Amino acid sequence: MGQPRLWAVLLYSTLIAVVLRGNKPRLGAGINGTWFLLTVSTESIAVLGALLLPQHPSDLLAFTCIAMFLLGIVLYLIVMTMVFLRWTFQELEPTEADPPAWIAAGAVAITVLAGSNLLGSAIVSPRLTRLAPVLEAFVTLAWVTATFWFPLMVAIGVWRHIVRRIPIRYHPSYWALVFPLGMYGAATFKMRATLELAFLDALPKVTLAVALAAWALTFAGLVHLGATTATRSRTRQRRNSEYLMDQPALPTGLVEARRTPIFDLGSVPQPLAESHRTTVWAELVVQKGSVRYIDLEGESQRDEVVDAGDSAVIVPGIEHRVEPSTDAEFFVQFYREPDAALFPVPAEPTRQSGPWELRGRDLDSRDEILEMVTRQYVDIVQDDLLEPYFDFGAGHIDWQAHIGTVADHWCHVLLYAPDYEIDVIEQHRSLHQHHPFEPELFDRWLEIFHATVASGWVGPNADRANKRATGMAWAMAQRFLGKGVWRPTGVST
């Protein structure tokens, strides 16, 4: 009975930590395929117990197996409800539709295997014999559910890799795709034999062949990654010795400005991956994996591999590109002169915000989003109603950094930039405590936001920005003012 005790310790310690933690992520950021491991771990006890029953008949063991089998189904229903709500009522980002989502099918497939094993052991357990019709119904339901998910998983994969062009390169998460395929094949094989479903003879063979092919491809990717990493390591050592004296250094006296979101192979911006040029000094900082940095011009064109924990200086005006490894995570830190203008606020007290140039395009790049946020704050800091929330004394706000952070949020919303898990609404609590929000504040902020977007941009992203801004203002008002105190114009209760 050691396995159930270990299961209980791990499951309850995880759930208690999740339930009691503070600063919880949004549903879209927090729910993913790995939550189905609650079902997988629970059903694995039923699978093992059912295999032990013929050698160690015990009513306690039979009851424990039945309990774990049914609890696994309940846990699956809980998690699947949240996942399905996430998939159907919030925009699905390509970076979210990763291989662990396939565990949705694998978790219910192991339920089929557990139930089939229990039915196979019913001959030694009167309790299982009495419940055999119920178990057969649950096994059939679980198998139909697992089969139902596979076409959807394939469609999501096509959308992710073909439509949204996320490259198929090895990542450890692909083993989470191999598991459901193999488990479905094994479960179908066991169910066919237990329930005497002769018409399913071919399906387990086909599924297991597909699972074996997926395993082989994933293993080949692992081997290739290992070989590539070793080669890059040797190349890095050689290049470091060759170019050590040619490495540029950041000028003294610079201070940190804004930084980009954390990028990986799937989210690296296209210009940075093909051809990019900065106007200020910057630094490529690698947190995980490795990134190949390549200068495309200049007297001494660098071509180096930057490993986790290292960085590479980016010289302003030099065209360059990067090639992240499959497991890379990195960001770009920008620098500025200490006395550089932080924010283009007009010196005159009168309003001087426009007319703005009509960009004639959508909010489809970080540059466009940064311009939109900058224009918005030029108006905000000159507004009698909003300006007091930013007037905490000279030097209190680094506007360049603040605008960069706000732009990161809108890049996450509109361009699906990953690794942004800040609770934007909660970040405003200190402002509310400093100067309590009033209903008219939200009307004015929305008015400026919508006017800013309308003055420069048109397209689907511009429309979505307006809708998301309206929803964010409404949610913030409900959290800080109370439900029903304020609502956006045209929105009913």
Distance from N terminus to C terminus (CA atoms, Å) equals 53 Å
Largest beta sheet, briefly?
4 strands, antiparallel
Number of strands: 7
- Element-by-element helix/strand order: HHHHHHHHHEHEEEEEEHHHHH
The largest beta-sheet arranges its strands as 1-7-2-5
Number of distinct helices:
15
Strand pairing plus helix content: what structural class?
alpha+beta
Q: Any idea what the radius of gyration is?
A: 28 Å
Low-confidence stretches: 341-352, 392-396
The oligomerization state is: single chain
Gross morphology:
globular
Mean pLDDT: 83
What fraction strand?
5-15%
Q: Helix amount, in percent?
A: 40-55%
List keywords for this structure.
493 residues, alpha+beta, 4-stranded antiparallel β-sheet, 3-stranded antiparallel β-sheet, 15 helices, 7 strands, globular
What is the secondary structure topology, with strand pairs?
Blueprint lengths: L1 H19 L6 H4 L6 H16 L6 H31 L13 H18 L5 H5 L1 H32 L11 H21 L6 H42 L11 E5 L10 H5 L7 E7 L1 E6 L7 E5 L3 E4 L5 E5 L4 E8 L29 H15 L18 H17 L13 H6 L4 H16 L5 H21 L13
Antiparallel strand pairs: 1-7, 2-5, 2-7, 3-4, 3-6
Descriptive overview:
The chain is α+β, with helices and mostly antiparallel strands and 493 residues long. The chain is built from 15 helices and 7 strands. The strands form 2 sheets. Strands 1-7-2-5 form a 4-stranded antiparallel sheet. The chain has a 3-stranded antiparallel sheet with strand order 4-3-6. α5 runs antiparallel to α7, α11 packs across α14 and α14 packs antiparallel against α15.
